[in-house]
Every structure is written in C-alpha cells, then in structure tokens.
Amino acid sequence: MELINDEQPTLIHTGPIGMYDKIEHKLKEVIPLEKLSYVAFLHFESDEWGGMEFLKCPKAKLVCSDLSSKLNLMGWYNVPTDHISFWDNEVLKTGKRILRFIMTPHVSSTRNK
Length: 113
Hints:
The protein is of the alpha/beta class and 113 residues long. The chain is 20% helix and 21% strand. It has helices at 20-30, 46-49, 66-73; strands spanning 2-4, 10-12, 38-40, 61-65, 83-86, 91-93, 98-100. The strands form 2 sheets. It has a 5-stranded mixed beta sheet. The protein has a two-stranded antiparallel sheet with strand order 6-7. A hairpin with a 4-residue loop joins strand 6 (91-93) and strand 7 (98-100). The termini are far apart.
C-alpha cells in the first residue's frame, strides 16, 4: 500500500480483509480520512481489494483499469459500481503528480518437467 499525499490524496492498494484498522490508523497519521480522494487498485485480487472499507470515506472514488472495470466490477454483489476506469496511457492528475496507467500483460510462470 502506498499513499500519494497530494492535493487529491490517493491510496494505492488497500491490503487484504482485516487490515483496514491498521491502515486507517496509519493513514490518519498523515491525512484526515475525509481528504482521501482516490483508492486505486491495479488488479482484482484480495491482497489489493480486501480492505475496500476505504470507500466509506466521503469523497473517495475507486480507480482501476478499464479492463478490471469490465471484467471484475460489473455484476458482483456489494461491489461499488461508482468508479473511474482508465485505459492504456490515460492519466489521473492528483495535483502535482500525474499517474499514467500502463497496461501490462499478466505475468505467469511455467515449469519444464
């Protein structure tokens, strides 16, 4: 998890379920929760998605890739449909920083037997 402390603070990854209280405590050491603007995840797996209680923050918007939006966020029970999705090379401006979304292939490993 990483916090980009900018004009529009952005949290990247939320950690697995059960980590919310620890992350919330650390986040409050830097900014009030009310200031959190974006919560971004880079792929749809529980290590990034499990702590999505951050969406209880009044202004926080979920940010993900367009592919994650289409494949993972549509049609699941209790998954927020109000989010912002980005395609390859699109950018999100958080103030002084600009985040560029770069599509990369999923990495997998194979073994020779």
